[in-house]
Amino acid sequence: MTIDTSMHPCFSASAKHKFGRIHLPVAPKCNISCNFCNRKFDCANESRPGVTSTVLSPAQAALYLQKVKALVECPITVVGIAGPGDPFANPEETMETLRRVRADDSQIILCIASNGLNLEPYVEELAELQTSHVTVTVNAVDPKIGAKIYRWVRPQPNKVYRGEEGAQYLLDCQLASIHALKRCGITVKINTIVMPGVNDHHISEITQKMADLGVDIQNCMALVPVEGTPFAELDAPEPKQMMEIRQQIRQVLPQMSHCARCRADAVGLLGEANSELIQDALIEAAT
Ligand code: SF4
Ligand code: SF4
């Protein structure tokens, strides 16, 4: 697969002021429960992953994309699916959306962000669709630590794992997914949320394991404690601690430092809020 990262605003610091991305919010459900996540908020002014003003069907998303391309000033070079749940807890919607977008535009960069639980079965088709960038969030490579982060892991509707068993199950799926992605030549980014007292002493182990698997880049993000979650009372890491962590692991794996922690329906240049025009187009697309 030929990968041109120079036009991906998240993977290339020089592209972030020139090229825009759109997240299509087609994946509402999630198949794991992270102690830092709350997807119940639905606020147009809140900017963080898991938040969207609405959810679209694949057909609505494809139409909305055409509208948005005409509404924004910057060229949209990347179409991503990042929730508001997990793309592969909603695999039919996710894959159908990617197929439609690719059928309409052979050049656009396709990008996915997942927790990795149910990603592996879809890697080959992702590669066939020329999905060039995939992010997997890995917050622990030790199930004892993972058990503190994940309340439950549900690979199938009638199968739920908890505690270390759940964390081990998730980790095995993540490792298999990353292996398959790299085998298909896909650029892989690892998102890692740094949670003080939970996994902040464990980051270099995660980084080393990911480097061993051949991943391309890591994005360490400070925990943002969100109201209504088990981790609401945890302290967010200080910027100094984040800087030291990145400094320490940079030699092992390149570090991304300009992630804007976008909403699941973000549009345009990184760091810029969705305009009212976009907001209206999104709501209209859903009706
Ligand atoms: Fe929330 Fe993402 Fe975790 Fe699912 S995988 S619970 S959407 S943070
Ligand atoms: Fe890019 Fe980070 Fe925004 Fe995802 S959340 S689109 S990686 S800047």
UniProtKB/TrEMBL annotation:
Q: In which pathway does it act?
A: Cofactor biosynthesis; Fe-Mo cofactor biosynthesis
| Keyword Protein transport belongs to the record | no
An example of a GO molecular function for this protein is: 4 iron, 4 sulfur cluster binding
What cofactor requirement does the entry state? [4Fe-4S] cluster
Any idea where the Radical SAM core domain is? 16-263
- What this chain does, per the record? Involved in the biosynthesis of the iron-molybdenum cofactor (FeMo-co or M-cluster) found in the dinitrogenase enzyme of the nitrogenase complex in nitrogen-fixing microorganisms. NifB catalyzes the crucial step of radical SAM-dependent carbide insertion that occurs concomitant with the insertion of a 9th sulfur and the rearrangement/coupling of two [4Fe-4S] clusters into a [8Fe-9S-C] cluster, the precursor to the M-cluster.
The entry's protein name is FeMo cofactor biosynthesis protein NifB
Organism of origin is Novipirellula artificiosorum
Q: What is the lineage of its organism?
A: Bacteria, Pseudomonadati, Planctomycetota, Planctomycetia, Pirellulales
Gene that produces this protein: nifB
